[in-house]
Design a protein that fits this description.
Distance between the termini: 89 Å
Shape: elongated
Number of domains: 1
Largest sheet: none
Structural class: mainly alpha
Number of strands: 0
Keywords: Membrane, Transmembrane, Transmembrane helix
Length: about 200
Amino acid sequence: MDFNIPDLPDLKSFKLPNVAIGRRKALIAGGVAVAVIAVVFVGGLLLHDYMESRQVAAFGGHVAASEADLSRVYERTSVYLHSSPDSPSIAEADAYAREFAAVADYGMAVTAYHRQVIGADAVPETYAGAQAAYLRALDNLNRAFSLWSSAAVAYDIQAYSSATRNLAAADQAWKDYVAAIEDYSRELRVAEEGEGLPST
């Protein structure tokens, strides 16, 4: 029996049909790509804002903790600065001076600790001025505590002229601290007002 084998098509001339992409489909694909880019961009902005908000919150929390601690320390220091025992004996005067020195030394340790914490805070550029002003305030307060401690030690060894000079220098350091706190408050207001302005 004869078999008729049909002619096979020439594979060299066989071509797959072109995938036709209509104009509408092309526009949809382009629109999707643009939408994806927009979502990534907006997501990046939201993440950036979130991170900055966390930085500001951490900075604010550290400043609040610093102010709370320093307020308690200064209250104790103020007791020694503005009061003294009536007609103290030599032993009482010596004890008073040593206690004052101990409180001032504690103040130095507290300011040094908070300066380290706040100095390590990463803050947005708009808050850099506020951070710098507060660090300057802590430096001034630390110097005041150091001078109060020195005055107490001088008083303890009856070096009264040295004690007086140290007290005067501590008073100036305290004034510098107050001025730096005012700078901090002003810089903080500027930063907070700047946050409400539209981005350019």
